[in-house]
Write a structure and sequence with these properties.
There is one protein chain. This protein is of the alpha/beta class and 331 residues long. It is built from eleven helices and eleven strands. It has one domain: TIM Barrel (Alpha-Beta Barrel), CATH 3.20.20. The longest helix has 17 residues. Bound molecules: ligand PBG. Ligand PBG binds next to α6.
């Protein structure tokens, strides 16, 4: 329990707010570049390495550009990058084989980054949507997203990513049982130290819109993802999902989206005390960045929004602001 303050004027809270030095001394929660994971979009489709219209300031990068980003991250003290491929539409099928091709774009980018900047942790996305002609995170039959068949595909995909040198796998698909299946396949293949950061509590959110533009999935997606992603009206279910994924072998867990779900972040950290991450998703970025560019909000909202995650108990944040925020934090 917090100590109850003595009555005024023995207690004046403003004493500790009078000057920056005192405010710094008593600050409870801090944000540093080391708390950030930088999601980037990669492509090898000629001409697609261009700005993403709904995410001002974010561009798709070539593999070479991704290596430059990794160097930039290292210079800024950002420990990890997360890769999302914009796949050539000609490679998308309903069976999604490209997802586990050892030489797919994402796996080539992993190898290139690990060769050039080995100290940067490379995180991947494990889900079928960038490769699926139907735009879903799982295999679809007769309009139904299949759980168990999808897991087999995801396990292949995860193994190919681990083989390419990924440090952190990020299953974002929300199928049931995928963490356990991936963990045992990784152990069996000798990838014992590959980290799984499970998107444990991922909500069916309209805040993902700009991301789907960035990876070229918007056009393909038929319907919505509500049969596998969480209902935004639920909270206890998030705790059960986190418990389940930890039990199946996740090393770290994620809540997604971020700012609209800070209550969930706080409950997860309080309940489990495990490494907990939040994803400040594309729509949150677009909202804040758009307002900043219009002069409606000051740039300070960026660090304030990120600090909120730390206050809610998150150990780290996936954010498109990572390089910009790290630069400000180091200034
Ligand atoms: C899909 C995936 C999504 C995001 C990360 N992985 C979108 C979705 O579920 O449709 C969203 C990230 C963002 O909005 O920034 N596997």
């Amino acid at each position: 329990m917090p100590h109850l303050p003595a009555a005024f004027p023995a207690t004046r809270f403003r004493r500790l707010r009078r000057m920056g030095a005192l405010r710094d001394l008593v600050q409870e929660v801090r944000l540093s570049p080391a708390d950030l994971i930088w999601p980037i979009f990669v492509t090898d489709v000629p001409g697609a390495d261009a700005p993403v219209a709904s995410m001002p300031g974010v561009s798709r990068l070539t593999v070479e550009g991704a290596v430059r980003a990794a160097e930039q991250a290292a210079a800024l003290g950002i420990p990890a990058l997360c890769l999302f491929p914009y796949t050539d539409p000609a490679l998308k099928t309903e069976t999604c084989e490209e997802a586990w091709s050892p030489d797919n774009l994402s796996n080539r980018a992993i190898r290139a980054i690990k060769a050039a900047v080995p100290d940067i942790a490379v995180m991947t996305d494990v889900a079928l949507d960038p490769y699926n002609a139907l735009g879903h995170d799982g295999l679809v039959r007769d309009g139904v997203v299949l759980n168990d068949e999808t897991i087999e595909a995801l396990v292949r995909m995860a193994l190919a990513q681990a083989e390419a040198g990924a440090d952190i796998l990020g299953p974002s698909d929300m199928m049931d049982g995928r963490i356990g299946a991936m963990r045992s396949a990784l152990e069996a293949a000798g990838h014992k130290d590959v980290v799984i950061l499970s998107y444990a509590a991922k909500y069916a959110s309209a805040f993902y819109g700009p991301f789907r533009d960035a990876v070229g999935a918007s056009g393909a997606l038929k319907g919505d993802k509500k049969t596998y992603q969480m209902n935004p009206g639920n909270r206890d279910e998030a705790l059960r999902l986190v418990a389940r994924d930890l039990d199946e072998g996740a090393d770290m867990v994620m809540i997604k989206p971020g700012m609209p779900y800070l209550d969930i972040c706080a409950r997860v950290k309080d309940a489990f005390g495990v490494p907990t991450f939040a994803y400040q998703v594309s729509g949150e970025y677009a909202m804040l960045k758009g307002a900043m560019l219009n002069g409606w909000l000051k740039e300070e909202v960026m660090l304030e929004s990120l600090l909120a995650f730390r206050r809610a108990g998150c150990d780290g944040i996936l954010t498109y602001f990572a390089p910009e925020a790290a630069r400000l934090l180091r200034a």
